[in-house]
Description:
InterPro entries: PurE_ClassI, PurE_dom, PurE_prokaryotes
CATH architecture: 3-Layer(aba) Sandwich
Pathway: Purine metabolism; IMP biosynthesis via de novo pathway; 5-amino-1-(5-phospho-D-ribosyl)imidazole-4-carboxylate from 5-amino-1-(5-phospho-D-ribosyl)imidazole (N5-CAIR route): step 2/2
Keywords: Isomerase, Purine biosynthesis
Bound molecules: 5-O-phosphono-beta-D-ribofuranose
Helix content: 40-55%
GO molecular function: 5-(carboxyamino)imidazole ribonucleotide mutase activity
Pfam families: AIRC (PF00731)
Oligomer: single chain
Number of strands: 5
Order of helices and strands: EHEHEHEHEHH
Low-confidence stretches: none
Amino acid sequence: MSNQHPQIAIVMGSQSDWATMQEASQILDQLQLPYHVEVVSAHRTPDKLFSFAETAEQKGYKVIIAGAGGAAHLPGMLAAKTLIPVLGVPVKSSMLSGVDSLYSIVQMPKGIPVGTLAIGPAGAANAGLLAAQILAAWDTELSIRLKAFRDKQTKVVLDNPDPRN
Ligand code: RP5
């Protein structure tokens, strides 16, 4: 991990979201990208949500990954309070399997965008990749690491064409 100040923040509505959101952190670890992690709840700590969003730019964050489940306000409220791009991850909920989270995050009214990923671990991992790809637009070395990541996963498929093995 480099000593570089984190340009990515991973926030989530609850400690219980970490099981999902750690997929984003694992991708960023693989890509040697530093990140900040914090629980920020839209409904339990609304004032903290506001102060996090208001100070995010001065802390140097360039992308915020926000995961939440149920009536998932966190990504949309963060997006309303900052111009930093917010990637929303719908966490799978116990009652509605995360479809509630997905609809809450993806259906932002016109004017305040949230880039919404898939429900659950795949969405969290892809949020990590997408955050890295956004930063790679200004970082050639990161771009090379992302290309190597893709080449590796392509090779795994090409090297194992028989599904019975
Ligand atoms: C949301 O409620 C969180 O994002 C979490 O997905 C869900 C359940 O939270 P806990 O009751 O596990 O704290 O705020």
